[in-house]
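Hi C.,

You asked whether I'd gotten around to modeling the 175-residue construct. I have! Everything is below, sequence then structure, no commentary in between.
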Amino acid sequence: MGYLSPKGYGVVRYNGKAPRVHRLAYHFLVGPLPHIRMLQLDHRCRNRVCCNPTHLELVTGRENLMRGATHAAVNAAKTHCHRGHPLEGENLYRYADGHRACRACMRDAGRRHDHKRHGYLGNAPNAQKTHCPRGHAYEGENLYVASNGKRYCRVCTRAAGRRHDAKRRAAGGHR
């Protein structure tokens, strides 16, 4: 008497063990399964309960995955990203682990990140502003431009430094 495993494969009792039916059928009707762990029996009919040996084929694990309705198979079959850009040529980026990405979408995501984090799109922060948030003008001696192109108000920077020093002195941690 047999039963279905939780994953949907047929299972029977044989010699005190519970092998899957398709493996047992292949063993008796085609030949013993090789002891190579890289090979798997693929149900070409895509029906896990089926034990017809003409529907079974020894394949690698990757090939078995790509034949099924798995996430890997669906993604490997994609020719365009979800925004419609082609996944080929200069627009294709391959990570070290082999998965693919769209360069145009990566570039757009970087711009959105810059805009969200810094409030600009491709320009240096504060480039369009003439005054700091506290109203001091970005000009002459009051302007400090950092190596990354960001502009700072010297009056506000000095005041922040003084506040920081005072806080450390009050906590007893200043030299």
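If it helps when you're writing up: Strands lie at 2-4, 10-12, 39-43, 56-60, 92-94, 100-102, 143-145, 151-153.

Thanks,
B.
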